[in-house]
Request: fold
Amino acid sequence: MANNSIEIRGAKEHNLKNISLSIPHKTLTTLTGVSGSGKSSLAFDTIFKEGQRRYLESLSAYARQFLGVMAKADVEHIEGLSPTISIDQKSVNKNPRSTVGTVTEIYDFFRLLFARLGVPYCSKCGHKISKQSEDQIAQSVLREFAEKRILVLAPIVRDRKGEYRKEIEEVKLAGYPRIRIDNIVYKFDEDEIPELKRYEKHTLEIVIDRIKVEDKYLSRITDDIERAIRITKGLVAFYEEHEKSEEVLETETPENTEEDTKTKKKKIKMSKQFEIDKYYKLYTTERSCANCGHSIADIEPNLFSFNNPMGACTVCGGLGVEHVFTEKHIVKDENLNIYEGALSCFVDDHIGFDMEYGTDELEVIAKTYKIDLKKPWKDLTKTEKKYLLYGTDKEVKWRKRFWYHSKLVEERVPGILDRLKYDYETYKNSYYANFMDEVECPKCKGKRINEDALSVKFNGKTIADFSSMTIEDLYDYFTKLKLKPNEEVIGAPIVKEIIYRLTFLVKVGLTYLTVERSSPTLSGGESQRIRLASQIGSGLEGVLYVLDEPSIGLHQSDNKKLIESLKTLRDKNNTVIVVEHDKETMEESDYLIDIGPNAGVNGGEVVGIGDYEEFIKSDKSYTAKYLRGDDDIEIPKTRRDGNGKFLKVVGANQFNLKNIDVEFPLGLFIVVTGLSGSGKSTLVENILMRALHNHFYGKTLTPGNHKKIEGLENIDKVIEVDQSPIGRTPRSNPATYTKVLSPIRDLFAATKLAKMRGYDKGRFSFNVKTGRCPTCEGAGVIELEMQFLSNVLVPCEECGGKRFNAETLDVKYKDKTIYDVLEMSVSEAIEFFDGITSITRILKIMEDIGLGYIKLGQPSTTLSGGEAQRIKLASELHKVSTGNTLYILDEPTTGLHFEDIKKLLKALDGLVEKGNTVLVVEHNLDVIKCADYIIDMGPLSGDKGGRVVAEGKPEDIIKVKESLTAKELKEILKPSKKKKENIKTEQTKKEENTSLIIKGANKHNLKNISLTLPKNQINVITGVSGSGKTSLAFDTIFKEGQRRFVESLSTYARRFLGRFEDANVEKIEGLAPAIAIDQKNVSRNPRSTVATVTEIYDYFRLIFARLAKPHCPHCSDKDTLKAETPSILATEIVDTMEQNKLVIISPLYHSSFNHRFTFNDNDAKDIKKIIEKTREAGYVRMQINNNDYVIDDITEEDIKELSKEEIYSVGIVIDRVVVGKDKRARIADALEKAMDLSNGVAHIKATQGIIVKESFHTKFQACLLHGILFDFEVTPRHFSFNSHWGYCEECKGLGSKPTFSIDLAIKDSTKPLFDGALDTAIHNMFSTPGKYYTDSLMRFLKRNGITKKDLYETPFNELDKKVIDTFFFGGDYSVGNVITQWHSNNDVTSEDYSEWKDKSLGKFFIDEECSSCHGERLNEIIRSYTIQNKNISQVCAMTVEEAINFFDELPTLLTERENTISKEAIKEIRTRLSFLDKVGLGYLFLSRKYATLSGGEAQRIRLASQLGSKLTGVLYVLDEPTVGLHPRDTNHLLDTLKELRDLKNTLVIVEHDRDTMKAADNIVDMGPYAGAFGGEVVFQGKYDDILKDNDSLTGNYLSERKKVFEKTAVRNEETECIKLKNVSTNNLKNIDVDIPLKKIVVVTGVSGSGKSSLIIDTLYPALKKRRLNQYSKFESVEIPEIVSDTILVDQISIVGSIRSTLVSYSKVFDKIRNIFAKTPTAKAKAFAAGRFSYNGKEGRCNICEGKGIRKIAMHFLSDMEIVCEACGGKRYNDETLSVRFKSLNIAEVLELTVDEAIEFFDFDKSITKTLSIMSEVGLGYIKLSQRLDTFSGGELQRLKLATELAKKQGDEHIVYILDEPTTGLHFDDVNKLLIALNKLVEKGHSVIIIEHNPDVIKAADYIIDLGLEGGTNGGEIIAKGTVDEILEMKKGYTWKYI
Reply:
């Protein structure tokens, strides 16, 4: 069953009562139930959360940190989940910057279209903008800046994030004296250049020249412009040095230089950016106006964004509106004068929040212009008002006020509006917003963007023109758009995206919206449909969608469209779960679930489940009753006529309203209805509500356009009841919201005990300090942050969850505490407070409208939408009614079930019965049919709406033909004869799509192929290396699947996931969300371990931070240290020390403790000082050396005496008290005080009779004896060895310290130090006279008597040890010490970490275990925290298997509270460990460095994490999962893959392994050959069929018609051996190994058996005679004389950029360039070899900088590569291409394939030698110029091999070591590889291979088989010998597979 349904077991989220149920896949399922019954808890908090969390865990850890914490749902288990997407009702986006265009991303594509294809015009004069020459710019500068001093600037970085250290250094080296950084000029030789912050945007400009602009300097200015343009490729800027800049630049006297550089930056930040812009002008040669010289900077998408400073209108900042202060908003009453309070912005005699401006300033203005301020405001003339509002028009002498003084000035006096504007801009206080009006921006006229952006046109239209069109018109425009041929390449994909998005908006009926419509003005229904539309558009399959009441805000007639959309989603093989109360949706769904029976604690169970037929039979379900018709909302028998008075809106014409007059009859229940977008909310919310609020409450809201409102005198107040939550924190609750808590607290404050203790009512609030529990601050729970798990709430230990402190809870009313009362439900409270009407009145109203079950103290955040709304109603209903109130409700039925609507209508009816008017905007027919009066808006939406179509009683409405509401209402009021068939006709489900269909795939070398892959099966894609397998599997299928799912995430999250490269495929159908498990090579970061990569360590850190107890590392007994709060300690004292005399002391000094409390050591000895300080502080007593002193009685004599004694203890006496039950509060206060004074320590002396007990107590855990304090809150980051909080200071958390190794620094010991012995990098650094390090070293060596002979003549291996030691480690300037210094300062965790230093210097270091932490990586304090006597490092030192046992046992040893906290984390750890075990990695140590894992181990770790997620319906794409696996382990792996498939997932695997192909359900063979000769599907089908297919190369090998390398003869002869003795590296068990030379030796064995430890970690360093790592451990090695060198070809892959090609990597390029440089033409033109490099500036094409292509950034689409127009993709400039050799130019030679080049260069052995080896290993088809980033994995591996093999092959004997060379190779490629390796052995070399491939093992001359298992169970030699000998022995596993 689980495969066809979602199985939920034990869901307990919120009020769910441990329910279990199944939901069938691929259905439309409706979840319903009364409000608060637990629907959302099931749909969103359980199903959605789990589905999304499991998919997101497959993304990178980096990406996940931006997606917020995905909490785990409280459910036992869920199976059958697919990746989940929710479309919920987050109410409309309130951000004014968000528009329909930005939400749907249509505007983003408009921006891209304009940036790439727009034509710019000049915003100043309208001319078309074109290229401009340097001379034209110079003329322009003469005009603009005549006679001014200017800086000529070359902008090298404009407004981009980064540190730019390298760039600044380059400017300095180029000899420029000044640079301008972020608007400030710095001189290199005088100023300190600031460190730029990496994540902030910066602008860097080189100061080319400072010059006065005069005609005579024209040629100098032109030269400057040319220099700038050369550097910046077309940009030059000018900055006028004006007074303000002079101040900053020129005032540098020597004294203030230092200070100045620092403050300069601040000054400039204050002076506003536009101040600077006034004096700054940027020109470009690319885009300038020839007519007036105006330049536009880059035309990038940013230019068209109103949310980016580059594009936003400069006046309104991109909002399209401006907020201005106006007279009407500041005048409160014009009949009063200013002193009497005419101004609403004045408080007393000044502006609110501004004490420096008020009537004094107005009197100065009045005096200047003779204005009488005692006149009423209305009697002042226009001119008089102008002066008061806008200030004086001349300078006046007056006394200007500042905060703390005033001074006489002569300047303008600002007016009231001026000052308000200044206050608003300075303080941004929302108070000032009350006096502002929103008006259209005068500059951009509401278009939001600046004039440059508005001057770019596409097809004659600006971007604003497109934005103002409706969706319908845009759809029409773009579907008919014909692009010009030159626009096609770039424009087509953009237009495709635009049409695609428009199409689905049309589909959900939003054609009437414009793109510029601002999001906050959309209704909830509209915004939800926009989100639904984008999901339908994504075309994903196999997804689970969860929707929250999608029918909200939809008119019944739109509902049908919506249901169709949901069915479309379902029919694409998706499961759709809808939380819904709409009858029609229920009737149309495939499956129904009713949660109930009631709300809150009385709900949370499944009361009805099944398809429609089954469901309506349910007897417990309210929903079923309504659907059957057994229960219904009654239609009122009569309609009211009202009180005859009206409220009338006249001339409403906001948005789409057509200048209408609407009458609202009063005293009735009125419903305004109509389609979504017909103008209901505009009329009621926007116009009526705002106008009424302004009228009644003096608000200054801006109502929509209308002429007037009549009849205001007929009502006396307006109350709005909306759907916003009643509180956003758990501290608010129904009792606080309805204010019923106030009279309850009064009752408690009036009790006898409360009066006696002086408690007021505030004491009984858990939000007030005095009454609440101090530990949890009245929350009742402590929230423990669990980082990536959801936070855990545990009851507060001190108050036991009761929120109040013990004293408050002593007070009782009728035997109940205030806590007990808050725990009561409304119904219980009514009974309890019977007779106290001030309390019960409102509670009864709550009970009436169905809220009797709610607890008074239930946190607001846990209420459902319907519950919150009814609580609001209740608090309105209980207010004393005047009978003239207008209540406005907007869609009150949101989230309400039929049963709830019944209760709501009853409540509203109660209001109308008292004579009030209720006005409701609603679509729900149950509400509409109960109305007294209906106003129907329409007839349609948008422009086709905005009129009143019908008004009157429901019975009158149904006669109006034009009204859509009438049609639906008629069915209810007058049901037609034929009863609607309830039984749904069984739709014939359309044929389910079970395949993945790919059409027209063209990525890389794919030849427009189309194929179909079966879903839910294992598909293997195979073929020779380079045939296009990866291009199909990863670059096409995976990229598309992931892109489509990720597009459903929030835009914010997507920013961090990188952009997705274009898959270049016509279309793919049936795609599910995709996850790739590839072989990204193992991370080389020394900080990564098995535990960190699997995230197990993150959970360890979490558990240790929450549960570990600290112990003093120096005490012998490991007792847990205690922390005590004053309050708990006081309780303990009262309970155990009754009648003791207590002295509570704040200790200042105590000699036996290694801890100083308050005063420092010296003070502690100076008793006089201590006494004085204590006296000053006002304390009465102190204790010195155990004697009591009254401070005021201490005489000078006493002090003299004390000074002679040795002081061993000093403390201040805080209180002396006899312990008793009533003294608890006093003792707690004294302890609190003592601890505050002594940094958390209190000293207590308790006396009983003659016994005195002394004790010290600390607020935190501490060992005072050793002075070790745990006085910080320990967090997970304290346990991280990558953070300074936790790491060991000595090794910075690496566990080992890199130690400089002389072995690694010496490359040839037979040569002298400075003549070839040193590694090149070191040699260059220390042997160049004039360089700092060289000169310092030479001086040092000379002082130490080291001669030139030692350095330049004596071979290194003959030098005296003392000379070597001095050279490397003798002093600060010695080579080893300098490099160590460099290396250790380059910390990975610091901001200025340099990867270059790490790579180039790291190779000279070996890791030695850290002496401080002994490899545990953490500091001493953090290592003192343990759980079950183990610290976190010791837990990490376990193997996976040991850790499983530890965590299985742990929960049984923990307390209940500890288990609550750690339950989830331990569950996560156990899951992750068990999957590591499952994929056969049980032997790995958790602390094992990730960099030391093999490729296979690393990939299996990633596979394990996928298994854990148990997702279904996903597409997994795997890259050779069997790599690095011994054939024995392949079966384990295949079982794992089958398990994934059986969960209904589709697997696409790129693989060459025989067993995997046998296990596959479908095989695709790509070919026929590699590269350009591949890219086609040669075969597709089952394993048995491929065996018979003669055309398939794979088939021929599988059927053994072709064999992989047939050995002609076995090399049996005895040869010399390399002998290793007693090897114990890593897990090797002291083995002796003999490795014969001049043979192919294969080392094999299962994963983790020790192959790499033996060959890479031990043999290779031994052969190199160097210590290359810290692991290598062996007794001795014997290396035969004949071995001259060793070459290692390992698994570290080549990283290729656009510039790396086959020839550049293999160094053949240098030789080819030399040949060209020797041609006669080249010699005549004096071209050197460098001229023929496409990386050199002289020879390459300047436009593409030698890349041959141009990358066009397409922002949210993948970047486009187009062939460079200038060089046609040839990479070189014409002059370089004019040189020919054998009739070909350099570009044509690079186009040759390897095989063609061998023929072409047959005369030059140095070239053909390397190329021939490439051809032998099967790379003959590749072009010389092919970029490495387009090579397949197998091709890269062989390129590396060929390059290494070509390096040396003279008469020397070389040992070649190869690590798994068959990775990524097909049988045919393996064959070529083995032929090439055999040739090497025939030439007299030796080959040693680590390998699992049976074909390679069979081809070996000698085999060493390690085992038996991996990890601690491996490390021994199981068998060794020839193939035949191994087969005879039958030991271990390998023999079975050969």
User: Anything to note?
Assistant: The longest helix spans residues 485-507. The two ends are 42 Å apart (CA to CA). Residues 324 and 485 are 49 Å apart (CA to CA). The chain has a mean pLDDT of 87.
